[in-house]
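Proteins fold reproducibly. Next comes a concrete instance:

***
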Amino acid sequence: MKQTGWYDKSTNGIVVMVNPYSQKEQIQQVVYRILDANLDRAREGLRILEEWCRFGLNNAQMANECKQLRQEIAAWHSVELRAARDTQGDIGTELSHPHEEERSSIKAVLLANFCRVQEALRVLEEYGKLYHPDMGKACKQMRYRVYTLETNLMGYERYQLLLRSHLYFVTSPAENLLETVEAALKGGLTLVQYRDKDALDSLRLENAKQLCQLCHHYGALFIINDRVDLALAVDADGVHLGQEDMPIATARQLLGPQRLIGRSTTNSDEMQRAIAEGADYIGVGPVYETPTKEGKAAVGLEYVRYAMNNSSVPWFAIGGIDTTNINDVIDAGANRVAVVRSLMQAEQPTLVTQYLISQLHRIQPSIPS
């Protein structure tokens, strides 16, 4: 039986402690155990990511990348590294953290396992240099591939949720802001934008943090109006920019490719420019006059009809839309709408959310999505 450490040896009735390894061999065994544990950790994390790519996203390309990475890591998992395993003697099996005991959403599961894989590959990169001259370099390249996979997967996940979102709640300042948003989330809402033009940055930051946590708890996207810095600070899913805000290309440089960027548009020229600049979605309006866009004339339903026939990205009709006129907007061609007052001022936001979503889901399949 293979010895992994000190053991008892009896000599003339006297028990002495004997180590079967030299100092060099002891260090080698420790390195082998570290490599074995982290090879397991990386493969396990990748398998969790692969299952979501396969069954959750139905994305063969990303699922295959996870599988390829698993197989490349497995190629380094030699018999001698496995033989060094000492599960019973591993103090790490008793260590845990409260955050490991629960996951609030699919996103939390994915992020936790991306971190797990990346950390394991970093360990393998460093200790692997003591095992094989090529192991460190191989694990370094795999770690970069995992970073790219994370960017692609999280961006894809966000965009897929955007496509599935037909009701977009844009907030306005209110004392019951959090309660109203949560009530709407309970009604099935999956897309929220935090908009507050006048509050102090300290308050906006605190509100954004709480709203972001709330939205992610319910599996919804959280967007910040205008402020790229706030979006980065709270790890929001993206920003929504007006015509006078920074260029989309600049926002993309700051936010990276995995976050969403929306742009408000009021006419066909603005729409086509926003699409050409790389907006992930656009706002179309204001359809009706609204105090939210004070001083801007309503564009009416004609622009909604234009968007139906000409927009190549998801678009949301916005401006004065509520339970009394949503069907007129739908009949004009909209299958996504954004609302402000109809939820912020609703006595029962959950029920209003459910009603608006039910109307949007009755759209005929012939209308482009």
Observations:
- Residues 23-56 form the longest helix (34 residues).
- The chain is about 50% helix and 10% strand.
- The chain has a mean pLDDT of 91.
